[in-house]
From TrEMBL:
This is 6-phosphogluconolactonase. It comes from the Bacteria. It catalyses: 6-phospho-D-glucono-1,5-lactone + H2O = 6-phospho-D-gluconate + H(+). InterPro entries: 6-phosphogluconolactonase_DevB, 6PGL, Glc/Gal-6P_isomerase, NagB/RpiA_transferase-like. The lineage of its organism: Bacteria, Pseudomonadati, Pseudomonadota, Alphaproteobacteria, Rhodobacterales. NCBIfam families: pgl. Keywords: Hydrolase. Gene3D superfamilies: 3.40.50.1360. It comes from Poseidonocella pacifica. GO terms for molecular function: 6-phosphogluconolactonase activity.
Length: 231
């Protein structure tokens, strides 16, 4: 456990990445199964980026009633869906295949020049699938999570208690505009997992304890999360 200012998470280290990815997939499957036991439809929110692919490879073959699962991204880069930086493309290739192809993808992207052009429509679609039943997030070495980046143009709004469910975000560290779930929308998830790899990110997690959420946005959602780490 780590704690300051009343926040806490459970830190779960693994001997190797493969074991970690398999275990996270099993944990998510168990959380989804539990949620499906008490709701007609449940939702799973996952990150893009480079880390979660192996989790998706394991999870997509799990035997559960995927036809009752809404899948959403925690954040999306504002690029067409066939672009190699599209998180939607990653989902379509590695999670929404096999048994999980029966799940419903709730998009965080629509073909439009700017996220602002379609944000209201995206919010309405996403809000129909809330609350988040199961959440998986990644974290950058700069302590961003989803697209809540330190120094981003609308970070304070995204961290505020009254934040909209989704908001556009532009940040010095992000090559394209983003759309992201806000911190309170993510923090309301019933089960929360964060996956990180490598010593740099583990050190960043340690540093985050003494920083504000503005400098370390991951803090805004880590309360009651399980943080899975392997070198
Ligand atoms: O689109 C994205 O980039 C993600 O959703 C983002 O929040 C990601 O989880 C972190 O940046 C970690 O990224 P890596 O796993 O690539 O280090």
């Amino acid at each position: 456990m780590a704690g300051d200012q009343g926040v806490s998470y459970t830190f779960c280290p693994y001997a190797d990445r493969e074991m970690m990815m398999l275990n996270i997939s099993n944990r998510i499957a168990g959380d989804l199964e539990t949620a499906l036991g008490s709701s007609d439809r449940v939702s799973l929110v996952v990150p893009g980026g480079t880390t979660p692919g192996p989790i998706f490879d394991d999870l997509c073959d799990v035997d559960l009633d995927w036809s009752r699962v809404d899948v959403m991204l925690s954040d999306e880069r504002w690029v067409p869906e066939d672009h190699d930086r599209s998180n939607t493309l990653l989902l379509k290739r590695r999670l929404l295949v096999g048994r999980a192809a029966a799940a419903r993808l709730v998009p965080l992207y629509r073909a439009a020049e700017h996220p602002e052009d379609v944000i209201d429509q995206l919010i309405a679609e996403v809000e129909a699938s809330l609350p988040i039943s199961v959440l998986l997030l990644g974290m950058g070495a700069d302590m961003h999570t989803a697209s809540l980046f330190p120094g981003a143009d609308r970070l304070l709004e995204g961290l505020s208690r009254n934040a909209p469910t989704l908001l556009p975000m532009r940040a010095p560290g992000a090559p394209e505009p983003r759309i992201t779930f806000s911190a309170p929308a993510l923090d309301g998830a019933l089960a929360k997992h964060i996956v990180i790899t490598g010593l740099e990110k583990r050190d960043a997690l340690e540093r985050a304890r003494d920083l504000s959420s503005e400098d370390a946005p991951v803090k805004a959602i880590w309360n009651d999360a399980t943080i899975h780490w392997a070198e």
